[in-house]
Amino acid sequence: MRESGAGHEGGPVDQRLTGDLPVASAAAAADYVGDDDTLVVSGFGSVGDPKAVPEALAASDRDLSLTVVSGGSVGPPIEVDLAEAGGLARRLPFTNKAATRDRINAGEIAFHDPHVARMGERVRTGALVDADTAVVEAIAVGEDWLVPATSIGQTPAYVAAADRLVVELNRAHPLALQRFHDVYRPGLPPDRDPIPLSAPGERIGDPRVRFDPETLVAVVETDRRDATYEFRDPTAADEAVAATLRDFLAAEMERNPALADRLTLQFGVGSLGNALMSAVADLDRGDRDLVYFGEVIQDGLLDLLDAGELASASATSLALSADGQDRLFADPGRYADDVTLRPASVSNRAALVDRFGVVAINSALEVDLSGNVNSTHIDGRRLVGGVGGSGDFNRNALVSITALPAAVDDRSRIVPHTPHVDHTEHDVDVIVTDHGVADLRGKGPTERAEALVENCAAPVHRESLRDYLDGARERGGHVPFDPGSAFDP
Amino acid sequence: MRESGAGHEGGPVDQRLTGDLPVASAAAAADYVGDDDTLVVSGFGSVGDPKAVPEALAASDRDLSLTVVSGGSVGPPIEVDLAEAGGLARRLPFTNKAATRDRINAGEIAFHDPHVARMGERVRTGALVDADTAVVEAIAVGEDWLVPATSIGQTPAYVAAADRLVVELNRAHPLALQRFHDVYRPGLPPDRDPIPLSAPGERIGDPRVRFDPETLVAVVETDRRDATYEFRDPTAADEAVAATLRDFLAAEMERNPALADRLTLQFGVGSLGNALMSAVADLDRGDRDLVYFGEVIQDGLLDLLDAGELASASATSLALSADGQDRLFADPGRYADDVTLRPASVSNRAALVDRFGVVAINSALEVDLSGNVNSTHIDGRRLVGGVGGSGDFNRNALVSITALPAAVDDRSRIVPHTPHVDHTEHDVDVIVTDHGVADLRGKGPTERAEALVENCAAPVHRESLRDYLDGARERGGHVPFDPGSAFDP
Asked: Which of A44, A176, B195, B232 can pair with A153 through a Cys bridge, CB separation 3.0 to 4.6 Å?
């Protein structure tokens, strides 16, 4: 098998089904899945996930104990239907829907949460799981290739790793979606080549994901849209965070020589991320190009493209609202030159985030006075969602920014000490809230704590944070820390 | 200025001083340093650091308030003499000597601890500090170049970032040391090229670090060896950790297709790391080459080279004992073909650790039941040492292994909950102790905790860890966590 795409070999795909393929019903395809199989599935940003086969598995009366490994978040067929049917025993690497999350928190589903960039190679090398069956959505399929749907995620690696392949051919998405796809599959170590992408908007692959034709056991035809994102309207706090972010970015562009010619951004997934994108539209960038190099395309990016503000956008998923999908599908050609979808192994890859000088902007549940960021767990125990790509970008960014409201429902999100750390003080550069900025770079722990309290916390919470800090400092040592009151509300 | 070396331009360097250079005494050179300057200095692995100028600063009666930024650890002139003279106000990115550490813990010196791989570009972009004066050790110097001494560290980036340059020309090291050096300086974002290194032992630069001749203000001549490492003899626990590691590596080689042809290792700095290298000599690797791609060359690697076990070794520092330095300096040609020293921006770079499939083996102070690793602080407060390169390797490794004795002085190093996290559960694959292995990959938090308690903890500590785990699990949620007893001894 080829290790990567090489140019637009074979030209555009103009029919849905090419060749003599094993078309089957969803129920028949589900029979290829063993009761305790490890399924590796398409899907990222809750779109492009398989739908009919997971639903058929959920509707069966089989006693299933499946491990389901996706690229990122997937939709209700897996995270709701299959979870509620009790079919999920193990889930990697991301989850964000209540039906699955509640079962993880109840100890019924084991959950492991690695960074998403490296899932492809970790599955291919058998480091995390031994992949039995790949179930992936496509908009077109041939005897040894498929064209992914609204996300690429880890599909290229997962179809290479699995013993069997089931393809869901979804006719609801236009074939023109292929114009967004740039499938390049990095090789395995050792001594693999660098990824030959020299600019964020460049193309180095083709629209097809290749697979071993011997593995294809079923093609299931479907015709249904993704369960798309619903973004809430921005709150006043969101708008204030966006204003703080805009001011910080303006100052950083003046200061940082690596931002002299271009501002390359990544935004985390979600309503706050979407709202923050609007801050960028109002930013005075001078002659600088604005470029997006992230993991998902959200509606806010389409707005920036429409306004002529954005030179290019690279991601692995079209995580749009229903309106956003309608807008894109109505005229794919309008966006296809500027928007590229890549495998998550490429969109999120450390080497590229580093080379392109990405300014990463991700949200969090809470930030502690040392600058540790918790993105995933409440009270150190209860899972809210996975770490996703936030670590891939924070760790390798030119500047890593964590943006969040200072308080939610009167509870401060700037806390003395977080019991769950997803991003350490070593990886967190700048905290932005609706009250201000704490630039933690080069600062020691006490200086960090003071900047977070005085600049970022809500004024109403500052006194109790100061009290904690004063008490902790009296105990001595490099990091102000008092185990006796670290977790006081 | 050139952004990188390009071949062995100019051929070997055959004299110490070339051209009309501003030779000065250490005291005169120290006068170029302002009282509250930011000094960016050579040094990594406690060798190759400047000596005479820091000592002259320490001996002066000036009221100094210096920020000192190194590549990694440096020797006594900065960490002891300058610290004891009260001259250090701020220190980045690593420290491991009592005189400086005690003052950091007393709040007298501010300390910030970023990952070392990216220090060069962060200093060049002014993200952490504004570099005033570079003070670097060399074995030869010309009008616009120098040849580093026993470490390269971040010297290429730091001399490019600083307004002024002071070179300490050290005649104690043989000129043949240049044969180890491969200086390539990555460009700045955006759109910099990938580093063109296609194998761990390849060479892509030359022995010279280039600088702007306008910045050179003084050359100070010295003739003294580094204050080298002293390794303690391996303890029984070290030997048992090594035996566990050897068994794990043997099993992983059988299992992991990315290790079919070659085993590429990195070991952390220190006595345990040095002892673990001996485990590798006894490993049955079949036809596989053994390669080292890490940050320091320790004595154990010289043993492997002498035994013909090691194909090549790449690092940024010769962190040897005095005996090891004697061995190397007595016959540099014996090792020069197989050992390469690179800038830390290359030796530790995420993209290369990833491409070469490095198996990273680093020690730690403690590991908690979620798999979080604390490498730097005792009791969440007191600094022991910086994170160094452990994050650069753990985060990007094919397999990241944390190796440590299960207990030290009857205190378990497997703890319920660590108050200081340097490496999160997302980055930690395998824990190895003198009692066994916990392979955390693909496991949920309770499974991880059980593997750590039953396989890795010392038998005498298992019952109390089980008690904690049982109590924490009763509280419910994804991660077993009980704030009431999380920090109980």
From this structure: A44
